[in-house]
Amino acid sequence: MHWFSRCTHCANSSKSDDDALCVLCSHSTTTTTIVMTRRISGSYIFLLLIEFLLLPKNEVASYRAVAIIHGVLTGSDSMDEISQRIQEKHPGTQVYNTVRYAGWSSLEPMWRQVEEIGNDILAIGAAYPEGINLLGYSQGGLLARAILQRFPQHNVKNFISLSSPQAGQYGTRFLHLIFPDLVCSTAFELFYSSVGQHTSVGNYWNDPHHQELYYKYSRFLPFVNNEKITSNTSTFKEGLTKLQRMVLIGGPDDGVITPWQSSQFGYYNVNETVVEMRDRGEYQNDLIGLKTLDKNKKLILHTVPGIPHFMWHKNMSIVDEFILPYLD
C-alpha cells in the first residue's frame, strides 16, 4: 500500500462521495490509500486516509506498520517486491511506500525531501501510537536517517538502512548514473558550489581530497553527521539514540555506493584508505549517537558479499534474512 498514491486502475487522485470508490473508474479503493488535496494560501493540505482505521478490530495487524523510502531516480514501484514480501511473510502488516520525489525529482535538495517525506512519516506514526518501522534503500536510507534526526519526536522503533551512503559518496559509477560527463576528481567543482548544492547528490558528495570545500559548501551531510555544531546538534543525536534498533546493511560487491563501507558509516581518509566506522572520529566522539547505540547493542551491521547495488531490494534472501527479523 502506498501513501499519497493514486487509483491503481486509472491513476486518478480524486474520489467519489463513496470513499471506497474512485470517481473516474469506480474501482474499489479499499486497499489503496487515496489522498485529497486543497489549495489554501499557497500550500497543500494532505488528508491521509489510513486503511487500518477501517478494519474490524480482529483484523488489525500484530506487526508494526512499515514505511519505505525508495532510492534515487526511481519511485515507489521499485520497492513493490520488498513491500509484497513483507506482507507475504508478515500477514496484516500495513506497508506505506512513498510515491514522493520519484524519478528526476529525487535529485531535489535533500532537506526539501526530508521536510516533506518527514511530515508523512509523522502522520503515519500518529496513526500507530505503538510505533512504526522505517526502511530506506540507497539515497532513501540517508533521507530516512535524516528524517529521524530532523523530527526527533518520531515514534520509529526500528530503522533499516539498505545500502545507503550514510557517510557520503565518492565514486565514478554512481556519479555516471546521473552526471555521465563528470569524473570524481573534478566533481567537487560542481557539487561544492551554490548550483551543485541544489542537487541531492551534491548534498552528500564527500570528496576526501577537498574537505575544506566540503565543510564550506555542503548544506546537508556535515550537519546531519553533526560534524558542524548547530542549535540542532543535540536533537539530531536524540532522534537516533531513541531507536530500538538501527540496522546497517551493505556489502563489498555493491559496485555503486563508494566506498561500500559508507553504508555502515565507514569512509575514505585523505589517502582513499577506508577507515571503518568504529575507528572514525564521528563514532569515537559519539557525534550522532552511533557509539551509544552500539554500547546498548542497538546498532546492528550486516555485511553481505555477492549482492550488486540494484539487487539489495529485489533479492528475497536478503529481505528474509536481514530485514524481516527486525520488523517486529
UniProtKB/TrEMBL annotation:
Gene Ontology cellular-component annotations: lysosome
Catalytic activity, as annotated: S-hexadecanoyl-N-acetylcysteamine + H2O = N-acetylcysteamine + hexadecanoate + H(+)
EC identifiers of the protein: 3.1.2.2
Superkingdom field: Eukaryota
UniProt KW keywords: Disulfide bond, Glycoprotein, Hydrolase, Lysosome, Signal
EC supergroup of this enzyme: hydrolase
Claim: Aminoacyl-tRNA synthetase is one of the keywords in the record: no
Annotated signal sequence range: none
Molecular function GO labels: palmitoyl hydrolase activity; thiolester hydrolase activity
InterPro entries: AB_hydrolase_fold (IPR029058), Palm_thioest (IPR002472)
Compartments (UniProt record): Lysosome
Gene3D superfamilies xrefs: alpha/beta hydrolase (3.40.50.1820)
Family, per entry: Belongs to the palmitoyl-protein thioesterase family.
Function: Catalyzes the cleavage of thioester bonds from S-palmitoyl-CoA or S-palmitoyl-N-acetylcysteamine (unbranched structures) but does not have activity against palmitoylcysteine or palmitoylated proteins, branched structures or bulky head groups. Conversely, hydrolyzes both long and short chain fatty acyl-CoA substrate.
PANTHER family for this protein: LYSOSOMAL THIOESTERASE PPT2, PALMITOYL-PROTEIN THIOESTERASE/DOLICHYLDIPHOSPHATASE 1
Name by which UniProt lists this protein: palmitoyl-CoA hydrolase
